[in-house]
């Protein structure tokens, strides 16, 4: 992989980011750097805003008004942006998200295109798993490296209540198929909801350890379509730890966290012994890790977002469909990243939830 030479940015100190940093202060650098010294090497690409589940913490039972197909980036446009990102901007990892990315018909072709690039990125997929058991081998052959599969409960009645769909068996089959296809380590993403499945944390960890999966608990974030999120109802990382400690002994994992959103812990039985596996906790709200963020995001309709909680976007679709060359697109992306704020600001009195829900932004 070709290394991207970086300049040394003028480092600002938080929280003085109420105004955009002067563009003149940005050093000459081909990479996606911001004024706090962070460099984006991880690109999250949303392939669609559509989903075939209706999770209660994400969208209403009737679904949402999906973006018209004409507004979505084409497979070719996505391929071009991936090439620009890896060749000119120093992107090393790509995660395909949604909505539900398996609903994107061109997904295998998009993966193959990215896998054939000289600066081939590591590629992963975040999915609800529906239908993955039939396609895991196809994605692996195309060049996908690994998957994260969402699973908030292993109880059928609760799965139906949370997702409004009776599809638990499909998800369990997806986990097995992904592992057999070599898309590992296979990770499970779980969100705990107070009074719904918050008593199931230890059961989920036992299930993951027994199956050889890596479990990641994610604090519920203010990204629901109805803007009904309340911090007081969120199950915190501290509570998750306390629940897991009733059945397991956790100790900090040796590997450095670096830019990973998950804080990792080795899992042992309460009586000690060998490490059974690892578990991660993504405490986006209670213990934000914004200072080490290495991500940039691209929505399915071609908008660059520097943060999940951004209230502004930069339009690359208009450049793609105009006469802009690769370097003009890359420079627009660099300028957008230079203006990235220090943190998401959820604790600020003036915090405003993004207008777009998670399904339209991409996980």
What secondary-structure arrangement, pairings included, does this model have?
Blueprint: E1 32-33, E2 39-40, E3 42-46, H1 75-88, E4 93-97, H2 107-115, E5 122-127, H3 132-142, E6 146-150, H4 156-163, H5 168-180, E7 187-190, H6 201-211, E8 214-218, H7 237-244, E9 248-252, E10 263-269, E11 272-282, E12 295-298, E13 303-305, E14 314-315, H8 317-320, H9 326-338, H10 358-361
Parallel strand pairs: 3-4, 3-12, 4-5, 5-6, 6-7, 7-8, 8-11
Antiparallel strand pairs: 1-2, 9-10, 10-11, 12-13, 13-14
Helix pairs in contact: 1-2, 1-9, 3-5
What does this structure look like?
The protein has one domain (23-361): TIM Barrel (Alpha-Beta Barrel), CATH 3.20.20.70. Helices cover 26% and strands 18% of the residues. The protein has 10 helices and 14 strands. Strand 5, helix 3 (132-142) and strand 6 (146-150) form a beta-alpha-beta unit. Helix 3 runs parallel beside helix 5 (168-180). The model is unreliable at 1-12 (pLDDT under 50).
Write down the CATH class. Answer: Alpha Beta
**Computed Rg:** 20 Å
Distance between the termini: 26 Å
Classified in CATH, the superfamily is Aldolase class I
In one word, what is the shape? Answer: globular
Secondary-structure element pattern, one letter each: EEEHEHEHEHHEHEHEEEEEEHHH
The number of helical runs is 10
Structural class, by secondary structure, is alpha/beta
CATH third-tier fold name: TIM Barrel
Report mean pLDDT, rounded to a whole number.
89
Strand order of the largest sheet: 9-10-11-8-7-6-5-4-3-12-13-14
Helix content: 25-40%
User: Low-confidence parts, pLDDT < 50 over ≥5 residues?
Assistant: 1-12
